[in-house]
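Dear all,

This email documents one entry for the complex benchmark we are building for the journal club exercise. For each entry we list the sequence lines for every component of the assembly. Then comes the predicted three-dimensional structure of the complex as a token string, followed by one or two observations. Please use this as the template for your own entries, and keep the labels exactly as they appear.
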Amino acid sequence: MSVSLSAVSDPPFFTVQAQDPHTAARAGLLRTTHGSVTTPIFMPVGTQATVKTVTPDELKECGAQIILSNTYHLALRPGAERVAELGGLHTFMGWDRPILTDSGGFQVFSLGHLRRVTDEGVAFRSHIDGAALFFTPERVIQLEEWLGADIIMPLDECLGFPMTEQAARVAAARTLRWAERSLAATTRADQTLFGIVQGGVYPQLRRECAREMAALPFLGHSIGGLSIGEDKATMHAMITEVVPLLPPERPRYLMGVGAPEDLWEGVARGVDMFDVVLPTRIARNGALLTRRGRLNIRNSMHASSRAPIEQGCPCYTCQRFTLAYLHHLFRAEELLAYRLATLHNLRFMLDLAAEIRASILAGCFSAARDEFLASYRPTDQGVRDQQKEKWLARRATRPPASASDATRPDDQELDDRTGD
Amino acid sequence: MSVSLSAVSDPPFFTVQAQDPHTAARAGLLRTTHGSVTTPIFMPVGTQATVKTVTPDELKECGAQIILSNTYHLALRPGAERVAELGGLHTFMGWDRPILTDSGGFQVFSLGHLRRVTDEGVAFRSHIDGAALFFTPERVIQLEEWLGADIIMPLDECLGFPMTEQAARVAAARTLRWAERSLAATTRADQTLFGIVQGGVYPQLRRECAREMAALPFLGHSIGGLSIGEDKATMHAMITEVVPLLPPERPRYLMGVGAPEDLWEGVARGVDMFDVVLPTRIARNGALLTRRGRLNIRNSMHASSRAPIEQGCPCYTCQRFTLAYLHHLFRAEELLAYRLATLHNLRFMLDLAAEIRASILAGCFSAARDEFLASYRPTDQGVRDQQKEKWLARRATRPPASASDATRPDDQELDDRTGD
């Protein structure tokens, strides 16, 4: 049986299992070489071939079905070809379930230095050692084939916020041409390439880009270039523009978005897949997710509490340790603190995705969403903006060699897409 | 049955199970409220109520039977009385096996600021916030009763190296008077207080101190004030002076000593218990223990190796991950690196203690020691001295508020007694 025939006769890559009657929410199943994934799904981020602080076994215990890793980071260190020589990314990091690799487009545009974009590709310097590098769509596919993830992203042009409509138009057009070249460059039948919809905050551009991407033979679609500084209403509006134009039989992945409230809002608009470093990054800052919002474990009100982070939470941390102990570990800057907080936040996000899916299958998605959002208090936008400014100010003064923002437990939560 | 009667009629605190015919090595069993401990034993150090980077479950998986914690550190943060309110140290940190607390004497003398010693006790300032504190033998017993460890140490006067014979004489005499006051101050029948032998590097002083401690009603003895800068021959000589004067039916604990070669040499001289932060601290620096000596995982020779740290090692890290992956994690400064290295080094030390015990029970201790030492290459003393100088120079320039040396993964290995 040839590869092209098998693609037709095998079970499809994605199956919609249930559709909510009142919203665009749906439940589905993704099939990959390394197993199936139920959707809607939250994907923990393992930028450097490790979800920070946790082992693959712990990820499974948290309920992770698929994780993300990053082509830009791995290409720089340890090198994609080296990972291939070591058996591919699954073997290298000891994770035998599905992996999705981002192309690194976002990272080239946010972390790379002295960047120069042409239609051919993007030249930049490594944030680690300043080495001159050149990414083309074909080169990125080569890197991702070396890494061997189950789902891969093509190189796209990512703009910062705000951007002009003209800049967004040029970037979307280039992203589209790069998407076609990426499709043509793939050689592995066991990887699924998604097309990424760009278009900034401009509805007309988003629609055009979505229509053209939908016409290409992708098996799934990403929505990129959101959650980069625009307000939530704008982000929701862009998703609402794009989703109806994407083929319903293909999964939709909202890149770099995935706070608890975002999951409900994204799913309601037809999104199937989410990833964001937020739950793991804020965990290392001592922000723990609960059904009522975030809890700051460093607050002295927790110093004497024998309660768990959340009553009834089945995560390892809540089963074993009190708020008082976690408070002590964070105050004492003990490394165990960062892991225990990460395990809780990951379990929270993965259980939340499972809860959303169950509500769709049970036909009560809207009621479940209303109930969750009625008690969950998202972080105030003003606080987020302040944190982001502080974080960007700190980054601006940091020398290139230490710009690997993702490796320090005291990072702020923002710039959630550069990696974790 | 009264407490004093039960102490007589219950199984003894310590039983010698086997005695090597050619050396002073012996195998034994310690009985505590939280279970038994086989000796010789290596005790992982959990200074701040956590063995850095690992959970209690992982400690058990590594084979840990008893761990250490530190009265000085816990009294400063979160406070010993708070730990008592939270159910005691076992409950607080989620460890249900035996715990030994050091009195904090060593830390007062190495970390405390503006120290002033009198016969009454020692006044000093907290290394965390500069708060004025006063430790007396009675106060330390009170703190340790609040913490609730199974085995506790009395306050002792610890000198730096080198020290004059006169200073060592004064400190040993004071330590002896404090030992008597500590015995008188204890109120809990479920804790066992050890007496600490001091005396510096002076054989006559060591013998006098050992004889006087042996005459007091302790159920176990510590040998303190060693591995603080003297050479190994001197350390061995001091152990050889002290051990024969201690009652054979009481366990002997060599404080702050426990490199692989030290375990064999200490056991050969009659020591039963060891603790040192070395295996966990060097793990966080990327130094991994093997049967041939230490391996530096950051070395580029490991970048492409699919081998484990050591063939046949049953530790979690060696069962799951390659040298190449560990090398990548260390180069990328990923937090998971520090845990995986710690798990390996702890397992190495705990398996080594078990191997030593088995060799005593099998009657082949000397042959087993010779075989181990023939292939194990200890770190060169010159390298250790250089590292120590660098570390001390860095400490000297560090402000008091960040002097908590034990909380950073990049600490050098030395000053192994201040905590981990």
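Observations: The first strand of chain A starts at residue 14 and ends at 19. Residues 181 and 328 of chain A are 53 Å apart (CA to CA).
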